[in-house]
Design goal:
The longest helix has 12 residues, at about 10-20. This protein has about 140 residues and is α/β, with parallel strands linked by helices. The chain has helices at about 10-20, 40-50, 85-90, 95; strands at about 1-5, 30, 65, 75-80, 100-105, 120-125, 130-135.
């Protein structure tokens, strides 16, 4: 487990780029943290690190935003409204596990009872207006 303090969106993006170097296709990242904690900024850093030129936005209403590239893609999920395993099947979630990509999942606590395996856990804690404590488990960043 590694803990980092970021003081800006740019530092959060840079941290995620470091995490990206430790990821490979098939990895699943669970995010924990409320609104405005930096999850979308972190996802932007993952995309940047993957060489994906995209403006990352929260998948709140779409449930999943795919950010695709030739080599490896990133699938950014919002599980806020997912309340059952049937709903996971209905949105095609399990199909994404077979794609050539990394899954980044917001509100992961909503699917933990139905999905017992993830690669990385990223927990966000707000310490100030732009200051965040980010704890990363499952991969050594140092």
């Amino acid at each position: 487990m590694n803990t980092f303090i970021t003081n800006s969106k740019e530092e959060t993006v840079a941290l995620a780029k470091r995490v990206r170097k430790k990821l490979s296709s098939g990895d699943v990242i669970f995010y924990r943290g409320g609104l405005g904690m930096g999850k979308t900024a972190f996802t932007q850093g993952l995309c940047d690190g993957l060489g994906i030129d995209a403006e990352v936005v929260s998948p709140t209403f779409s449930i999943v935003n795919p950010y695709e590239s030739k080599n490896i893609s990133l699938y950014h999920f919002d599980m806020y409204r997912i309340e059952s395993e049937d709903r996971l099947y209905n949105i095609g979630f399990y199909d994404y596990l077979d794609y050539n990509g990394v899954l980044a999942i917001e509100w992961s606590e909503n699917i933990e009872p139905f999905f017992d395996e993830y690669t990385v856990l990223v927990e966000f804690e707000k310490l100030g207006e732009t200051k965040r404590k980010i704890t990363i488990s499952g991969v050594d960043i140092n």
